[in-house]
Structures are given as structure tokens and as C-alpha cells.
Amino acid sequence: MSALAHVRQAARRHAHLADAAIALAVFVATLLTAFAGRSAVAGDHRAVVIVAAALGCGVLVGRRRHPLVALGVSAGAAEVFLAECGSSNGVLILLAPLVALYTVADLVERRPGLILGCGAVAALALVHAVHEPALLGPQNLAFMALGGLAIAAGDSSRNRRAYLAEVERRAERAERERELDARRRIAEERLRIARDLHDAVGHHLALISVQSNVAGQALVSDTAAASQAIAHMKSASRKALGELRDTVSLLRQPGDPVAPTTIPAPGLDGLDELLATLRTSGLGVDLRVDGTVVPLAPATDLTAYRVIQESLTNVFKHSSRRQARLTLNYDRHGLRIIIDDPGGERAADGRARASGPVPAGGHGIVGMRERVLALGGHFTAGPRRGGAFQVTADLPYQPLDLAPEAAP
Length: 408
What we know:
Elements (H helix, E strand, L loop, with lengths): L2 H11 L1 H21 L7 H16 L8 H19 L1 H4 L4 H13 L2 H22 L6 H84 L1 H27 L21 H11 L2 E7 L7 H21 L4 E8 L3 E8 L22 H11 L3 E6 L5 E8 L12
Parallel strand pairs: 1-2
Antiparallel strand pairs: 2-3, 3-5, 4-5
């Protein structure tokens, strides 16, 4: 950092000391000029000259707090000084009102400051011209030029300060926006991982839970059924571990070995395997496809799979009949998915027994709704007559953020 930069920083930190130094320097220079040489001020005028110089220069100490007062007092004192001392000896006293002009242009509101500063220059020039016509020439023109320069310098300082303040505000705002965006991205990623864990691992764990109950009940009476249930648990646990391993690998730090950057996303091409797994585990699923099958965008394909997987898993866990109907309806607007749990078994009196309720506090329906709405789709889930339960999801073929522009 240069010496000038150090001086500027010190002046900003100790503004009042800097103002006092400026006032003292102008005062000393003015008196040296006034009392030196052959045309020095006579003895009977010295007291007035010193008082006028002290007042005109001393008021500069408070120029930042009261810039208009500093301008008025310094200008008046300068005129008294010039009247007593003469223009040849006392010209340096004009530095005091020039510094005050700079301060007015710098600190007072821009339009009033410029008007007051220009008016003060004109008034001082007029006073000089009236009292001492010689100043109407080059000296007076030089004073007006210096006054304009002081006003321009003060206005430039104001503009620079406003510019730096705006730059700082924009930098702070950009920093806050970056921080908020980072937090939003972290929250979205956390939510996405939570949904993936729930949809992928939760499905297999639900199968394991149900099959463990089957195996426990069949160990004594039906060893073959128990062995089959245990085999299903083994297969489901292996798949759950694979899903969990892929998801957790996303949380590795950069540089960790063998860390895949994406999880293989399932889609409706894996629907047959999903239905086969559920049917093998004891859930009857009737599949119906209406319309012409349309290839889906990757995000829509994954969401369709997860909605079907979560809904059928809920039927498997909570339905007493272990029976579900799955309808895929392809039309010109999008894909409609309907999963029906027909309801409970018929009792002896003909009334339907309701399916088991979905446990409170679960995240399955919430996660499905979030996935569907994020693509611009529509989602409903709720009970029907006779203890039935239905989930409906309308998905666009292209998500909103990926949809091509509409044709004119």
C-alpha cells in the first residue's frame, strides 16, 4: 500500500484531527502571507486580521457537522480579512471558504448543495467586484474558477461515496442470495435423498417385515411356506442394501474412492419386476393399460414408478385383502395412474371390513404428492366407500421445466 493510501486511511479514521490540521495549515499560511513583506498589515489592524483569520479557519474544524454554517462564517470572515489586509496580502484566506464549498457540495443534498455553492461563489465574486474593482479582472475570475473546482470536487466525492456504498450493498445482497441459494439447494438435496431412501429402501423393508410375519407363523405348520418367505426376505434385503449403498454413496466427500455421482433411476420399464416381486410376496395386482404407451421423460418416468411402488407397498402393508388394481391411462395430455385398494373382506353380516389405516406421521403420501406437484401434475389420495382407498396421479409427459415451447 502506498504512502498516500495510508494517509487517506488515517484521515478517514481521524476525520476531526484531519480537519483541525487543515484549518491550522490555512491559518498559518494566511498569517505568514499577511504579515510578511513590505506591505505587511499595520499594527492597528493586526488584531482584527488575526481574529478574522482565526474565525474563518477555525470554523473548518466543524465543517462536517455543520457545512452550511462553516461556509457562511468562513466567507464572512474572509471578506473582513480582505477588507483589513488587502487582496495582495490576504488572498490565501480564500482557501477557507473554498474548503467549506467543497464540504457543502460533498455532504449537503446534491441539488441544494450545488445551488448554495454556486450562489456563494457568485456572491463572493460580486462583493469583491464592488469593494475592490481590481478583483473584477483575472483574480476574480481565478477565484470563481477555483470555487467551481471546489464544488465539482465535492460533488465527485459524493458520487464516488454513493457508488462505493451501492457496490457494497450489491455485494452484500449477492452474498446473502448465494447463501440462501446454497441453503435451498442443500434442503432440496436432503429432501430428495430422504424421498429416495423412503421409496426405495422402505419398499423392500416393508416386504421383509410382512414376510417375516409369514415365516414366523408358518415355521411350525408349513415349513415350505416359511422357507419361501425367508427366501423372499433374503432377496428383498439384498435389494434394500443395494439401494441404500447407492444412496449413501452420494454423501461421500470428494476424492473418496468409487463414489458414483448418480443413483440408477428406475422407471416404468422396471414395473414388471416390481409387480412380480409383490405378487410373489402375496399381493395380488391387476394391471390395466389404456391408450397407446408414450415414452416418458426421465423425471416423469421415475415419479410414475415411485408412486406405483409406494402405493402398492402401502396396500401390501395395510390392506386386509392383499389385492390391488393398477390402471395406467395414456391420453393426449399425460399419464394418469390409479391404484385402488378395494377394501376389507366381507363379514358374515355383509358389511365390509376396512383396510388397515395408514400409520399417522408417515411420509409416503407426502413424498408422492411432492414428486407429482414438482412436475406440474395433480395428485389425490384418500378413502372410498366400503373401506376402499384410492391414489390418483396425473403426470405430464414432459415436466414443466423441461417441456418444449408450445407451437404457435
